[in-house]
Structures are given as C-alpha cells and as structure tokens.
Design brief:
Blueprint (H helix, E strand, L loop, with lengths): L18 E2 L24 E2 L34
Antiparallel strand pairs: 1-2
Length: 80
C-alpha cells in the first residue's frame, strides 16, 4: 500500500490540547510531563465539557488524556 504524498501526519503531543488545570495557564511551551499540568490540587478538566469528565465519559487528567484516547486532540493539530 503506497502512502498518499498529500497526506500530512500530525505529530502527537503528550497530552490532549483540551486538558486544563490551573497550572496549565502558566506553562510556557508544550507540556511534556505530568508535573507541567497537574498542580497541588490534582484537579483537571476538559475544555470541551468544562468538567472533570471528557466527552468520552472518562476522567480528564494528565494520566488519562493521552494519544490513545478516542477524544484526544494533539496540540500540534491546527485543524481541530
């Protein structure tokens, strides 16, 4: 099977672009470690649902919102 030369592969970020926490707003650059997002409260939320549960009805947290999740969106994908 040949690759489509016009198809672009989006690089995956370590965490979903929709994951939020208080600490998220102070990160300067792409969060690469859980400690870049999770603060002392350990509270995260999804910016789509605005709750601690994502659109797939699973917990929104840095340990959960990764590329293998159905609702994951990469920080590098400008089309989402």
């Amino acid at each position: 099977m040949a690759n489509n030369p016009t198809e672009i592969t989006i690089m995956q970020s370590p965490f979903c672009r929709e994951l939020r926490s208080k600490k998220y707003y102070f990160v300067q650059g792409v969060p690469t470690e859980e400690s870049d997002i999770v603060d002392g409260s350990n509270h995260c939320w999804c910016s789509i649902t605005m709750q601690a549960i994502g659109p797939d009805a699973h917990l929104a947290h840095a340990t959960e919102c990764k590329p293998d999740r159905a609702c994951y969106r990469s920080l590098f994908d400008e089309n989402t």
